[in-house]
Amino acid sequence: MHENTAAHTAREPYDAVVIGGGASGLSTALVLGRARRKVAVVDAGAPRNTPAAHMQGFLSRDGMPPAELLEVGRAEVARYGVDFIEGEADHIEQVEPGFAVYLAGGPVLRSRHVVLASGLRDDLPDIPGVRDRWGRDVLHCPYCHGYEVRDRAFAVLCTHPNSVNQALLVRQWSDDVVYIPADMPLTADDHERLTARGISIATASAIRQLVTQDDRLSGVELADGSLVPCEVAFLFPHMVPNDGVLDGLGCARNQAGFVITDDAGRTSAPGVWAVGNVCDPRALVISAAGAGAGAAFALNHDLVDAEVAKAVQSAVRPARRAVGVSSIEK
């Protein structure tokens, strides 16, 4: 990736500026670049899945390191003349005929459309050891990592209202699952479902820390001094979308705080799009890439519609003037 300079401010507006260079952003840029659109990708280089050694569930790329996918993707996209700008978008303003994207400490990019593909961040619980083990043997998504840790001893930490459902789900990857309710009492219904699923339930006590041995997770220590042995821990992080640049543009959000889009990725603000985890926290890498491609198709059609309307208007005006002159001369 290379960094372009303030020369951008003097150029013709981009057709689209894509904020975020992950799977969804690169897929958007790839399709638009192949459609011969003028596109820039702004990326800060901090993908959510950086701690993961491998990426799973992506057909033809299963097991590929995340960084390798992005490297290959950037090379593919670059073949179609897409500009890559290393940096972080600070804020966006509406200007005619589209938007001004202000980069932190850098140039201002003019664009007809903006695609936000900046993902989300995982706010982890303040439990000693969690951050150090995150993406290794402390995990969130069983579809991403469950097969690789199958049949090991799992502990599911109650850190979220959906933690019980997470425990019920991961049970299919291991017969040895213990649910740690921490200091949040279980309802009778949740207790019944966990027990019926063959999941053990630890003592209701706050979690003190994770315990490791030889750089591997070995257990969860509780505040009452007891130790729950395990090799893998699952927990639900608090997911926060990286969408601050949309502030002031009037994009509607749902109750969870995520930007609302239609099936193609359009937000409620005309010309502003969102794809991937920034608007869909459940999107896997492959589905985020698909969403980027879908948004690019729709965005290009919107551009074509606008260009046709402008061409028709330009053709009609001279014709009307010519008719007027002819009438006067007669």
UniProtKB/TrEMBL annotation:
SUPFAM superfamilies (alphabetical): FAD/NAD(P)-binding domain
Cross-referenced InterPro entries: FAD/NAD-bd_sf, FAD/NAD-binding_dom, Ferredoxin-NADP_redctase_2
Residue ranges constituting the FAD/NAD(P)-binding domain according to the UniProt record: 14-285
Domain of life where this protein originates: Bacteria
This protein's UniProt keywords: Flavoprotein, Oxidoreductase
Catalytic activity: [thioredoxin]-dithiol + NADP(+) = [thioredoxin]-disulfide + NADPH + H(+)
GO molecular function terms listed in the Swiss-Prot or TrEMBL record: thioredoxin-disulfide reductase (NADPH) activity
Database matches in PANTHER family: THIOREDOXIN REDUCTASE 1-RELATED-RELATED
Protein name: NAD(P)/FAD-dependent oxidoreductase
Higher taxonomy: Bacteria, Bacillati, Actinomycetota, Actinomycetes, Kitasatosporales
